[in-house]
Design a protein that fits this description.
The chain has four helices and nine strands, in the order βαβαβββββαββα. By secondary structure, the protein is α+β, with helices and mostly antiparallel strands.
Length: 150
């Protein structure tokens, strides 16, 4: 199964430690899908919230499609995510009890043309965690560089 990745949230891995991921469908209008095919989405400030046993995605910017003829939806509107009831219950328990957040990591198309979003069950990093990750990444680069020169 191949994926055509539209957008990734690189900042999510910097600001959060991702514990697990889950794939969800998204309820979109026609012009939004056309805009996504052009790669016009921004996940940077996005997050998902569970309200009344439904999952809603907030602050994900999908640019308006330039050739749309009917009314263009708001680029930052809240969008419903499609998950099984069992998956929603598991997420509800983890988000409420353990202090996790639902962060969109990437948005992509699957083989049959449907749009999927990968949500990460994330916990916020402290400043010292971010510094430790940067140091580890830098030391890994130096080790790889040393192996390359040998």
């Amino acid at each position: 199964m191949s994926k055509k990745i539209v957008s990734t949230n690189k900042k999510a891995f910097h600001d959060y430690s991702i514990e697990s991921t889950i794939e969800a469908g998204v309820v979109l209008t026609g012009p939004e899908v056309k805009s996504l095919r052009g790669g016009r989405a921004n996940l940077r400030d996005g997050y998902a919230v569970i309200e009344r046993d439904e999952v809603w995605m907030h602050n994900v910017h999908i640019s308006p499609y330039s050739h749309a003829t009917d009314m263009v939806p708001d680029p930052l509107r809240t969008r419903k995510l499609l998950l099984n009831r069992r998956e929603i219950k598991k997420l509800t328990i983890k988000v409420k009890d353990k202090g996790f957040a639902l962060i969109p990591i990437r948005i992509y198309f699957i083989d049959n043309g449907k749009v999927k979003i990968e949500l990460g069950l994330a916990r916020g990093k402290r400043m010292y965690d971010k510094r430790a990750d940067l140091k580890k990444k830098q030391s890994d680069r130096e080790v790889a560089r040393d192996y390359k020169t040998r």
